[in-house]
Every structure is written in structure tokens, then in C-alpha cells.
């Protein structure tokens, strides 16, 4: 018997004016899986995850998270569902005017309103330890390198103990060594926290390290699916072009 996917998308369409971004995509994210969506800029990768969390409303199609239809949810119901989802934004999206401790505390209090002040500090330390940056707790984001800011962004996603993590270009703007470190950290998080993750990227090294399965998106349509090794041997010239 096939288990219910954590995320199931069917026939998803989204346009902005005359610009058709998503043209009927289908995908499923299984429990405990890292699913990579690979595509060039403008192919619809980021719009897909924005539709999943309700930041953008789909024009047509179905989005189910843990069996719940997202497109039908009211505002409060959608917020309740978002508590299960950690989101690592492309630019890190840390609050510049807050210390690292304050950034993580703000997120935790927003998601867990009944948590006491005494209980918050240990959670912040645990999240920072999970990304190897506990010594940065009192620093400001501007004092950290790009790679360190990405790690803090991941700690902020982890602090709410999500079932699902959505990564939007987690290695963009980083050098090769730091990109690899972030990719390996994503893998560690999957193993340690048993998360199910959707990873949006155009970084082939990141896709190879993190992805149990890869979908390739081209102009709003999924044109290929498989493991890194399977897609690398594809007979489709456009698919193979990613691996050169």
C-alpha cells in the first residue's frame, strides 16, 4: 500500500498577467525525502514553493500538505499549517536590526506563543548548536559571512521543529567550499530531524549532495524526474545540459 505523501501537487497553474509561470505541474514529496526541483532562472521554481505555503494563490490545481487541501484553507487554518513548515529564504532574510538571539527568539515566539521565557533560551542554543554557530548568539547579522547567515537562517527554520523544510536556493551567492558545507548541513538535518524537504536550486553540486530525487522544471513544466545518476544519463539533450 502506497503511503500518503507529505506534499502532493496536481495540475498546478499560475500566471501573472499574460506570463504563464506554472503550466500544470505535478509532484509528490514523500516522508523523510529530500526532493530537489532543478531549473534555470524564471522556470517557476520559487513560485512553486510560494504557492505551497500560500504566499501566492494558485490559479488552478490542488496542493495537499499532510492530506489537507491548502487552496481551500482560511487564513487561520493556513497559519496553523505553516507552523509545521520551516522556510529557508534565498537571501537568508534575517532581521538586520536584531541580534542572532533576537532573530531566533522572534521566530520561536511567533510560532509557539505559550512558551515561557525560561524555555526559549535553551531552544535557541540547541538550534544554533545544530548548525555549529552557538558562539554567534549575540552577534548582528552584518557581522557574519554569507555562509554563516545561511546557517543562521537554517537554525531559524529548525527552531520551530518543522516536519517540512522548504529551501529556496540555499547555496546561491556562496563560494564552492561554503556551498558544499551548506549542502552537507541540509543532509545532516534530514538525517537528524527526519525532515521532509523541498530544495529549489540551480546548483548541480547541491542537487547531487542533497537530493534523493530530482525534478527538472523547464518553462513551468516538469520535463524529467529521477536520481542524479539517472538524469545524468538522460537521452534528452536539454536535461543533459545541466550536467556538463
TrEMBL record:
Superkingdom: Bacteria
Keyword list (alphabetical) reads: ATP-binding, Nucleotide-binding, Transport
Task: Give one Pfam family.
Answer: ABC_tran
Q: Where is the ABC transporter domain?
A: 7-244
Q: Name one GO molecular function term.
A: ATP binding
Task: Tell me the InterPro entries matching this sequence.
Answer: AAA+_ATPase, ABC_transporter-like_ATP-bd, ABC_transporter-like_CS, P-loop_NTPase
What name does the UniProt record give this protein?
Answer: Phospholipid/cholesterol/gamma-HCH transport system ATP-binding protein
